[in-house]
């Protein structure tokens, strides 16, 4: 009786949380229950965890009493096997339509009560679904004018390249200069290679030239990252010796937050996942020419990807016992990184140097030499970072989705140290940084070594224990992968209707090829291909239209405005934009066409047109 009541209560809880999450996901809306319990995109991980907890508890109380954890897992695996057979096969042994046909086409064959998978078919389906998700997720946000980080940089750079430029963009130009320098300079753009050296973009240029759109970039990235499923499956099958176990491990790989979160935007650094996994596979086949080719592609994605390539050299040295090759790869990656930092990148930046030493690692010094010297000679400077709550949460977020199996395979996982150091030591002071988000793009280079250590740990369990133990471990791995899915979800993935309407209105009011001064960065990717854009307030006097979002809280009438005082001291962009906005409203050359207020921030969004003569008014 008690178990029946508990089952019913858990069913009700699961239905409530499932409905709340569907509402929150479908429209980014807030779901409230009894005025006190609420579910929104901002708080999605907690209800998702509650739902899974209720589900697992429901399965636990539904199993026969007195079973151990392993026996309970076996019970439900057998029940799932029988359920699949009942769905797909009739009592007379014939395939049931249409469900059996679907399962068979997926690669599932069911002789008796055993499940036998056709690995190639199943992995093809997983790859297809992953590519579809990685394409549609950023495309949905792009078309709905949701913030897609750094997309404007790549769209403008690729658009410059197809016109014969060297991937110039205005974002890096104003990022590298103060507001005064930016406004006084005659230049407006600078090569992307002044920030990061990414020669891989040359290989993407022909496809972008055919279809010049951000969606093309999303699709290319989805294809490349989705292709990583194949080498990981091949490696899993080689390590685990069984195709069904390899499929289970591959499913967990495709659910890993750092793999799914490559859909946040377009970042060529995410290609590292695929290139390194193929390098691992070809090294296992002793096909070293192909292995070296994929390592070169890894270096081409971003100069800092020399760090995981350096680690791969250590892998070849210690695990493959190819001493000369391992040393050569390690030395070459170090020389390549130094060449990029000291020669290639500064040459494109007109002597500006490597910008990120001044922003990301300024606690250790303002130059590359100073940073390296501080880390080597004053290692105690790293203690506040390494032993911070931020680093602890970061490591937990990296390891929990893979059930802490890399701890068992630590010999491989420790090769992540160069990339981990890069991420953990970034920022000042140590706190919540985007480079220390487990599902962030900075964590993508950690994926190959993390999952290689997972495979090593699973093969160790297979060799030292029974098949039941590895089945149980894979089941737990799937559970932790499901629990960790919210790590790949960000609340700003849903549309901001105010900005969506503003960009749509602007496109109706402004003709193509018009000169536009704007700070609406969320719509830059779309507007860049239609208009000649300048970063507001650059070239306001020569612009045909001004399209801006301004924080009215910077009004100097408020003497207690701390944000204003800080901006005045730092000559921050928000203050400069506000000053020019006030002048714009008093400028008789411009007329206001449209204005609204964004409810969540209170920012004023306005569209202004420059009048040629009095008759235009």
Walk me through what this model shows.
With 617 residues, the protein is an alpha+beta fold. Strands 8-7-9-11-10 form a five-stranded mixed sheet, sandwiched between helices. A two-stranded antiparallel ribbon has the order 1-2. A hairpin with a 3-residue loop joins strand 1 (31-33) and strand 2 (37-39). The protein starts with a helix and ends in a 7-residue tail after the last strand.
Radius of gyration: 27 Å
CA-CA gap between termini: 80 Å
The secondary structure category is alpha+beta
Strand order of the largest sheet: 8-7-9-11-10
Q: What is the 3D shape?
A: globular
Q: Low-confidence segments, ≥5 residues, pLDDT <50?
A: 562-571
Q: How many helices? A: 30
Specify the biggest β-sheet. Answer: 5 strands, mixed
Give the beta-strand count.
Answer: 11
For the residues shown, what is the average pLDDT? 83
Strand content: 5-15%
Q: What helical percentage do the residues reach?
A: 55-70%
Describe the structure concisely.
The protein is built from 30 helices and 11 strands. Helices cover about 60% and strands about 5% of the residues. α5 runs parallel beside α12 (about 245-255) and α11 packs parallel to α14.
List its traits.
617 residues; alpha+beta; five-stranded mixed β-sheet; 30 helices; 7% strand; globular
Layout: helices, strands, pairs:
Elements: H1 2-27, E1 31-33, E2 37-39, H2 45-62, H3 69-88, H4 99-105, E3 108-109, E4 116-117, H5 119-143, H6 151-162, E5 168-169, H7 170-176, H8 179-184, E6 190-191, H9 201-210, H10 214-226, H11 229-240, H12 243-254, H13 257-260, H14 271-284, H15 288-301, H16 306-318, H17 323-348, H18 356-359, H19 368-377, H20 383-386, H21 389-399, H22 405-408, H23 410-413, H24 417-424, H25 447-464, H26 467-483, H27 497-509, E7 515-518, H28 524-527, E8 532-535, E9 545-550, H29 562-570, H30 573-586, E10 590-597, E11 604-610
Parallel strand pairs: 7-8, 7-9
Antiparallel strand pairs: 1-2, 3-4, 5-6, 9-11, 10-11
Helix pairs in contact: 1-2, 5-10, 5-12, 6-9, 10-14, 11-12, 11-14, 11-25, 12-26, 14-15, 16-17, 25-26
């Amino acid at each position: 009786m008690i178990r029946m009541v508990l089952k019913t209560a858990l069913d009700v809880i699961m239905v409530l949380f499932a409905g709340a999450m569907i509402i929150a996901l479908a429209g980014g809306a807030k779901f409230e229950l009894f005025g006190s319990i609420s579910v929104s995109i901002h708080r999605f991980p907690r209800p998702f965890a509650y739902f899974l907890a209720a589900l697992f508890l429901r399965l636990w109380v539904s199993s026969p009493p007195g079973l151990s954890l392993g026996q309970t897992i076996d019970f439900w695996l057998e029940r799932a096997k029988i359920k699949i057979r009942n769905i797909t096969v009739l009592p007379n042994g014939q395939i049931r339509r249409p469900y059996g046909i679907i399962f068979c086409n997926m690669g599932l064959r069911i002789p008796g009560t055993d499940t036998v998978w056709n690995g190639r078919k199943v992995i093809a389906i997983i790859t297809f679904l992953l590519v579809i998700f990685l394409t549609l997720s950023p495309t949905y946000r792009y078309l709905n004018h949701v913030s897609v980080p750094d997309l404007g940089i790549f769209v403008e750079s690729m658009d410059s390249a197809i016109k014969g430029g060297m991937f110039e963009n205005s974002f890096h130009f104003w990022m590298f200069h103060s507001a005064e320098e930016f406004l006084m300079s005659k230049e407006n753009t600078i090569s992307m290679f002044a920030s990061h050296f990414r020669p891989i973009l040359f290989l993407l240029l022909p496809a972008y030239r055919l279809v010049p759109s951000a969606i093309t970039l999303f699709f290319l990235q989805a294809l490349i990252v989705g292709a990583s499923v194949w080498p990981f499956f091949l490696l899993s099958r080689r390590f685990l010796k069984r195709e069904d176990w390899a499929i289970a491990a591959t499913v967990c790989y495709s659910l890993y937050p750092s793999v799914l979160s490559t859909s946040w935007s377009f970042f060529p650094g995410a290609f590292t996942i695929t290139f390194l996994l193929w390098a691992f596979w070809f090294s296992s086949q002793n096909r070293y020419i192909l292995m070296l080719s994929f390592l070169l592609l890894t270096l081409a994605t971003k100069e800092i990807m020399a760090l995981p390539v350096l680690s791969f050299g250590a892998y070849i040295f210690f695990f493959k016992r190819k001493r000369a090759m391992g040393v050569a790869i390690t030395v070459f990656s170090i020389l390549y990184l130094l060449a990029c930092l000291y020669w290639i990148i500064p040459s494109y930046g007109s002597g500006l140097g490597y910008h990120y030493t001044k922003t990301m690692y300024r606690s250790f010094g303002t130059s590359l030499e100073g940073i390296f010297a501080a880390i080597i000679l004053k290692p105690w400077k790293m203690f506040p970072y390494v032993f911070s709550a931020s680093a602890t949460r970061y490591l937990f977020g990296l390891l929990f989705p893979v059930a802490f199996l890399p701890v068992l395979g630590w010999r491989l996982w420790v090769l992540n140290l160069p990339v981990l150091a890069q991420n953990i030591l970034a920022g000042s002071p140590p706190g919540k940084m985007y480079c220390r988000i487990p599902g962030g793009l900075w964590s993508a280079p950690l994926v190959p070594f993390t999952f290689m250590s997972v495979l090593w740990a699973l093969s160790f369990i297979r060799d030292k224990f029974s098949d039941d133990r590895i089945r149980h471990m894979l089941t737990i791995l799937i559970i932790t992968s499901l629990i960790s899915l919210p790590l790949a979800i960000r609340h700003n993935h849903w549309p901001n209707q105010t900005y969506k309407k503003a960009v749509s209105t602007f496109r109706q009011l402004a003709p193509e090829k018009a000169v536009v001064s704007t700070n609406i960065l969320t719509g830059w990717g779309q507007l860049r291909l239609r208009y000649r854009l300048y970063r507001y307030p650059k070239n306001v006097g020569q612009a045909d239209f001004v399209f801006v979002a301004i924080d009215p809280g910077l009004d100097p009438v408020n003497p207690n405005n701390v944000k204003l005082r800080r901006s005045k001291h730092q000559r921050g962009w928000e203050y400069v934009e506000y000053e020019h906005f006030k002048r714009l409203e008093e400028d008789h050359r411009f007329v206001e066409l449209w204005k609204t207020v964004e409810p969540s921030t209170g920012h004023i969004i306005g569209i202004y047109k420059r009048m040629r003569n009095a008759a235009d008014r």
